[in-house]
Amino acid sequence: MTVTEGKDVQSDLKLSADVVVIGSGCGGATIAKELAQAGADVIMVERGGYYTTARGDFDQRADNMLARIDGGRGLDTSPNAEIALMYGNCVGGASVHYWGDSWRLPKDRADLWKKQGLSGHGHDVLEPIFDAIEKDLNIHVHGPEYYNRMNQLFDIGAEKLGWGIEPVPQARRNCTGSGHCYQGCSYDAKQSMAITYVPAFLEAGGRLFADVEVEQITLDNNGAANGVDCVVIDRETAKPSGRAIRIDAKIVILAAGGFTSPVIWLRSALPNRSGQVGRNFLCNPNPALYGVFDEDIYMWTNVPAATGTKDFRLPEYNAAGDYVEGGYLLHPNQLQPEILGAVLPGIGEEFQDLMQGLPRIGGAVAWIDDEIGGKIYLDGSGQPVYEYKLQGVDLLKMRDAMKKEAQLLFAAGAKFCILPDAAGTRINSPDDIALLDKVDIENGAVLHGAPHPAGTLKMGDDPKTSVVASTHEAHEVPNLFVADPSVFPSGPSVDPSEIIMAFSVIA
Ligand SMILES: Cc1cc2nc3c(=O)[nH]c(=O)nc-3n(C[C@H](O)[C@H](O)[C@H](O)COP(=O)(O)OP(=O)(O)OC[C@H]3O[C@@H](n4cnc5c(N)ncnc54)[C@H](O)[C@@H]3O)c2cc1C
Ligand code: SF4
């Protein structure tokens, strides 16, 4: 097993391999493992650090772990502060801090993607791949012992409202219910890539370089990808250490995640005749609402979202084509006390009261299946700009989701609800829910989490309207393949990790 960390690299290196994979998240680790097990000589390069429970790297402290495993320490936003860019920066990528919710691509969405130009990724192709992934990651529905009080209240509220309740399949093994999924699991229970497909890749002879950032993909004289230029990152300062690594490879696989793969493409000045690189930037923005209850909830205990409702996954339109409701998944929310304290608004005595009653605060969160994409591009100094504006039907979905969250929290017994906006808007009774139609949630008035980036290197069979072919190979760059959600033509309508892995198996 070969893991080279930044501190191990004391001089510039020149390496070669059959395949170099950029990124070690769900997309990169899955394809790297598949290729190494098939006998290829594979190097996987990861910008972030290599962290293990054996070395005691996971200390369950939100502040420490944000610095270790989260990109930008969890502080990056779009320029208008409407979305928080949530991504991993470590071996295993975002799967190290994810919640473990694991969905298959719904058949209606696989059919839609076919209509949008994809081939070879249909429902029948994907189903057996999902079976295998679910076996590998022990994906299963949890029993009631894993429901924290917020999960129980979610079901109580949903039942009162007549909504369908659907347990969320979870990627866990021997979970202790510590509630620290977002900080990375200290018990190796959550089946992140770091403890599943990355070790399988290493066992199959793969070589992993951590703390190594790919600066550019290079091309040969015929315009085909032939390797990558990298810099070694000093983990303490998060800056280049001064060492460089050149990797020659017959195949380059770009799997740096939905926020970063288009950035590497643009920085490498790769061809973009379709004009689609960086366009169609989708991110599943997350409107969240908090409820104050009479009883202790301790939302930070046990697994985050063992339950939820899929009743609103697909949007409904009336006969005139106007939006009515839906277009999102709805779940119980979970935040650790440090982060909950930071996102809740307020000052002075009122805020002090709120903090003293922190255990009694619960919440609900939605993943919006956004349709109107933003744009990722480079500014004059080569830094990425994540342009994203809530608008049109996406804005209607956000407001509808917040109203459903309020309905649910009140039905579950909340005394009042709090919107995490700068003004600290309170919804004092179900009669006030209509306020959520008017309150400002744009232009940074509320910072919405954006954990599921996708769409900016769109897949399709037509090179005029897409960046990569259904084989995952770039239309205009032979030997360059993309294996992450950048290839999704539109949102998957559910959490994407299992779908990203399945697409990587096909790639
Ligand atoms: C808080 C949170 C909770 C989530 N919960 C769920 C959930 O419950 N279920 C679900 O399905 N999804 C969930 N997600 C989303 C899911 O985790 C991600 O969609 C998925 O893990 C992304 O995989 P990926 O391989 O596309 O990208 P990533 O995991 O981002 O992997 C890309 C990797 O590439 C590395 N990289 C980037 N640039 C470079 C470079 N230049 N050189 C070298 N390496 C580079 C990055 O450091 C990163 O490790 C959650 C996300 C967040 C933020
Ligand atoms: S809740 Fe389970 S999976 Fe999540 S961090 Fe705790 S032990 Fe790990």
From TrEMBL:
GO molecular function: flavin adenine dinucleotide binding; oxidoreductase activity, acting on CH-OH group of donors
Database matches in Pfam families: GMC_oxred_C, GMC_oxred_N
Signal peptide start and end residues: none
Keywords, alphabetical: FAD, Flavoprotein, Oxidoreductase
Residue ranges occupied by any Glucose-methanol-choline oxidoreductase N-terminal domain in the UniProt entry: 46-282
Gene3D superfamilies (alphabetical): FAD/NAD(P)-binding domain
Limits of the Glucose-methanol-choline oxidoreductase C-terminal domain: 378-503
InterPro entries the record matches: FAD/NAD-bd_sf, GMC_OxRdtase_N, GMC_OxRtase_C
PANTHER family: LONG-CHAIN-ALCOHOL OXIDASE (PTHR46056:SF12)
Similarity comment: family membership: Belongs to the GMC oxidoreductase family.
Annotated protein name in UniProt: Glucose-methanol-choline (GMC) oxidoreductase:NAD binding site
The species this protein was found in: hydrothermal vent metagenome
Organism lineage: unclassified sequences, metagenomes, ecological metagenomes
